[in-house]
Amino acid sequence: MRNKEKDAYEMAIKRQTILEKSFQLFSSEGIEPVSYLEISKVCGYGTTTLHRYYSTKPKLVVAVAAWKWEQFQEENKERRPNVDFSSMTAAGILEYYLESFIELYKHHKDLLQFNQFFNAYAKSERIDTGTMQPYQSMIGRLKERFHMVYVKAEQDKTVRTDVPEEEMFSKILHVMLAVVTRYAVGLVYIPEKGFDPEKELLYVKELLLRDYRLSESVN
To answer: What is the C-alpha separation between 169 and 93, in angstroms, rounded?
Structure first.
């Protein structure tokens, strides 16, 4: 008789291995050039096993993206485990949110590299909405967390609410993600005497805060 708990454990280990090894390959080699055969060799499983877990390459790529971003979000929570958002102003929460992108640059350049490849791959492959659903769900949860800023701002007036919430979320997400990605992959101007990437990222953070923050004093 098969041991269901053992089988479930072994399946979880295999799935985790596939995600981890695939991420390593995708973030270093790119997504388009990497074949299922290469992935199976690195994982130590046959291509049949790989297809059993992820029947197509787009499904595997999306699963890797969703898993890695979820992992970062969990790590970001642990960055300040004792933070109490209920006692923070909207401006304070917004600043915390912006700082998360700088943490991403400091500790997860491989994720930013992967994300650049992922966006290009998803566009070129025209991945359907059903396959993209795990990734979109992750983005949805990110939007829900950002929603806290807007709700707080309507109460304490420390962040602008004359800008639609969706517009604010989109602008901040795209600006910060684009900037940290360019720094992570080296697509930046490097002065002759060098520069401090983190200092420049803090400057971008302050520009966005200046655009949206009204006051730190609660009415």
So the answer is: 13
Residues 116 and 198 in one domain: yes
Cα distances from 50 to residues 4, 25, 28, 71, 94, in angstroms, run 21, 15, 20, 22, 41
Domain boundary among the residues 55, 77, 100 is at 55
Q: How far out from the chain centre does Cα 89 lie?
A: 24
182-195 tens-digit pLDDT = 999 988 888 888 88
pTM for this structure? 0.90
pLDDT in tens, 26-55: 999 999 999 999 999 999 999 999 999 999
61 and 142 inside one domain:
yes
Cα distance between residue 94 and residue 154, in whole Å: 13
Range of the domain at 206: 57-212
Q: 124 and 68, same structural domain?
A: yes
